[in-house]
Amino acid sequence: MPHPVPDGMPPVHAWGVYADPLRAAVSAWKDAGRRDLGAVLVPLLAVSLDAAMAGVGWDAGVVLVVPAPSSRRAVRERGDTPMTGLCEAAVAQLVGRPGPALRVAPALRHVRRVEDQSGLGTVERRGNLAGALSVIPLWDNVIRGRRCLLVDDVVTTGATLAEAARALRAAGAESVVGAALAATQRTRG
Description:
The chain is α/β, with parallel strands linked by helices. 39% of the residues lie in helices and 21% in strands. A five-stranded parallel sheet has the order 1-7-6-2-3, sandwiched between helices. The protein has a two-stranded antiparallel sheet with strand order 4-5. Helix 7 links the parallel strand 6 and strand 7. It is globular, with a radius of gyration of 15 Å.
């Protein structure tokens, strides 16, 4: 968990520490278009999804897997939404295992422009994302009353997960937990 933990951040399970070689793989997959690295990252995300659900005791029913949304600019530059594809592949890998049925729900969108988070500090990241996400109206009835497993690639300050969880709760999600490929190591203070 980041320190300080942002208000509303759900409990999160990350597969590993955001350090090489995982950092290099995630960065190349996300920013350099190396979608072939999905073969390496999908099993890691599947483990993280499973562990996040086990951590909160979700062992039956249906769980919506909600990828953190890409900004419109990132979608234009990359030509795709990599988190959605990675979530779909990880969910497919978990089919047939005991536990809840998983459904990918790309239900979140940006409602205003945000800056690229990579160059921002903790306070700036939180301010940049405050009120920036909402549930796409067509997904409102799907989200309401459901358990949501929110997915991001890297947990740094927790700003993305906290804002996304806020948007899901505002749409009536029953409960929200998080999963990620990696988390940065943060020191206190």
